[in-house]
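Give me the fold.
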Amino acid sequence: MSSIKVLLWKKNKNKLLHPLAIRITKDRRTSYFSIGQYIEEKYWDSHNRKVKKSHPNADKINQLILVKLAEINGCMLDSEALNSHASVATIKRKLTVANTMDFFSVADEYLQSLIDREKYNQYISQKGRIKKLQLFVGNSKLNFKEITVPFLKKYETFLLHGQKKSPRTVVNHLIVIRTIYNRAIADEIVSRDFYPFGKGKIQLKFPQSEKIGLSIEEVKKLEAADFLAPAQKHAVNLWLFSFYFAGIRIGDLLLLKWSDFKDGRLYYRMSKNKKYDSLKIPEKAYAILEYYKNEMGVNKRALVFPDIGEVNLNDKKHIAVRVKTITRNLNRRLKLAAETLKINKNISMHIARHTFGNISGDKIPIQMLQKLYRHSSVTTTINYQANFMKKEADMALDKVVNF
C-alpha cells in the first residue's frame, strides 16, 4: 500500500518560512521530497493541502505542487510496474536523479562514455553538436520535458536557416539528441511518455546524399600537376594515394608507417570498423612512396607522411583532434589546386573514395568492391556503390528515347 501527500514541513517552528514537501509512504515506510518552495505557515491551507490565495504567488506554487504530485505518482507507478518490491528509498532516489540530471548532464556522461571506449572521432563530432544545442537553448540547463516536437522543429529551423547547415547535417544533430534521450530513458531519468521521436512525432531519415567523384580525365590532371605550390602538391599526393588504395580514409592514411608496407603489399587495420586486410601496392603509389622516402628517409617505426608530426601515437584523443585539423587544411589546399587545374567539382580528401566508386562503376563485382572498400557488410557496399552504377540505367534510357 502506498500514498503521497503534500504538506508544510514544520519541524523547526521557530523559523518564519517552512518548506513545502511531499510525503511518500509505502509499506509503512515514509520519506519526504522537497519541492523547493518556502512559505509562512499562515499561507498554508492544511485542509485542502494548497497555498492560500492570499499568498502573492499562490497560483504558481499550487501549479508546481500539482506537477510534482503527478511526477511522483508517475515514478511510483513505473517503479511498481517494474518491481512490486521497490522501496520508498528507491523511489525517492529515482526522483532525485530525475530532478538533478537534465539533458546536458546526461550528455556529459554520454561524451565521457565515448572517451572511455576510445571513440574519439565520434566524441569530437558529438561534442560540437551538443554545444550547438546549448547555443540554441541559451542556457546550461535543459529539462528533458522541454524537448518537445515544437522545440525540435524550431531547432531544425535554427540549424537550416540560422546556421546554414545541410539537411543531412541537421539529421545528425537530431540523432545525438535522440541518442541522449534514449540513454536517459534507459537510466529511468525520464519517462518514455515524453519521448518526442517516432511515428507521428519527429522521424529521422537521412536525405539521399549526392556522391560525385572525379572522372578519369580529372584524376589525370591531378597526376600531372607538378607545377603546384609545395603545400598543394602535398595535398594532391595524399589525395592520389588514398584513391590508389580504393579510398583509404584520411585518419588511416596519415597513420601509415613504413613497416605497414611489406612484399609489395600494404597491411593495415581500419580505425572505423577494425577490419584488417592487405592490398597490392599499385605502381602509381610506388612513385609517391619513393618521393617521401627521398624527402624524409625511411624509419620502419616512423610514419610515411609528415603531417601528424612528433606526437605520442598512443594518445588517440590527441591524434583524433590533429587529424580533424589536418583534414581541414588539406581540403582547403585541394580546392585551391582544383581551381588552378580548372576542375569544376567539389574536391576533398573524402572525394577520393567517391572517385574510386565513380570510376569502378559497374566494372567490378560487388563482393570484390566490398573487399576493396573494407566494408563489414556487402549491403553497405551495395548501397554505397548504387550512387555510381549508371550503365544499365543509361542503356535503359537510350532504349526509350533513341527512336
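The chain has three domains: 2-99, 103-194, 216-360.
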